[in-house]
Each structure stands twice: as C-alpha cells, then as structure tokens.
Amino acid sequence: MIDVEVLTPEGGVFDGEARQVSTRTEVGEIGILANHTPLLAALLPTELRLKVSDSEVKRYAQAHGWLQVFGNRARLLVEEAIDPADLDQGTLKDQLSDAEQRLSDSEDGSAEHARAQKDRDRAEAFLAIAGG
User: Fold this and answer.
1) Are 74 and 39 in contact (CB under 8 A)?
2) What is the pLDDT of residue 132?
3) What is the 3-state secondary structure of the chain?
4) What pLDDT does residue 7 have?
5) Which of 59, 75, 87, 99 lies 20 to 30 Å from 3, alpha-carbon distance?
6) Four-residue CA torsion sign, 38, 42, 47, 48
7) Tell me, what's the pLDDT at 22?
C-alpha cells in the first residue's frame, strides 16, 4: 500500500492508502505502486483512479496539477478533482465551446492562447469522463 493525498485549492479530496494510483502526466499514463521511485511530474486532465482495495476504485475527474512521489507517499496537487457523477455534460460542452472560441481569437504563443488550450484540454477530458 502507498499513502495517497489528493489536494485542490479548496482542500483535501482524498487522504488514505491505495494499492495503486493511475493518472496521466505530460509524458503519458502512469501507475504508481508501493515503494515507487521518487518522482515529480506535471499532470494533465484525465480520470484519476485510486485502487484502494481489490474490489474498490475511487475515480475523479482530475484537472492540471503536479504529482510528487517520495517515501512511499504520493501527493497530487491538482486544480480540481471532481467525482464523475458530479460532472454536467451541458456545462462542459459550453466550457469547451468557449475555450475553442478563445483559442481561435487569441494569438499563438500568448498567455491567453495557452490558457484557452489548457481550458480546452480540461473540458475535453472531463467530457470524456462524463460520457459525453
């Protein structure tokens, strides 16, 4: 087992033990097991899966953030970690449309363009998790 802590700006979402942590970094999917080598990685929006037992998996819609693994502890600092049941497809589709509009209206390489890309990636990932 590995100690796992999932934190957002609003506070803790999960703090406990898990058999495995599955998420997505900038370089690809990753699975973290007990006694994993130390790691620091940027996280991309995806479905965060915490296998807490052989029969139970906690799932979250995870936004951008950071993963730190050290001393048999995984700490995820993310902008959002939302229960998939709480995702609203209509709202997410509106957010995706808005992000795509801002992306086309902004200059490539600008801060506005980067924020719009980040928002689009989040909306697309969360829509996929919500089943839309």
Assistant:
1) no
2) 58
3) CEEEEEEECCEEEEEEEECEEEEEECCEEEEECCCCCCEEEEECCEEEEEECCCCCEEEEEECCEEEEEECCEEEEEECCEECHHHCCHHHHHHHHHHHHHHHHHCCCCCHHHHHHHHHHHHHHHHHHHHCC
4) 97
5) 87
6) positive
7) 97
Per-residue pLDDT of the chain (132 residues; tens, 9 = 90+): 999 999 999 999 999 999 999 999 999 999 999 999 999 999 999 999 999 998 999 999 999 999 999 999 999 999 999 999 999 999 999 999 999 999 888 888 899 999 999 999 999 999 999 885
Neighbours of 52 (CB within 10 A): 17
Cβ-contact 46, 25 below 8 angstroms: no
Task: Tell me the pairing of strands 2-8 and 73-78.
Answer: parallel
Are 33 and 2 in contact by the 8 Å Cβ rule? The answer is yes
Cβ atoms of 50 and 4 within 8 Å: the answer is: yes
Inter-axis angle of helices 111-130 and 89-105, nearest 10: 160
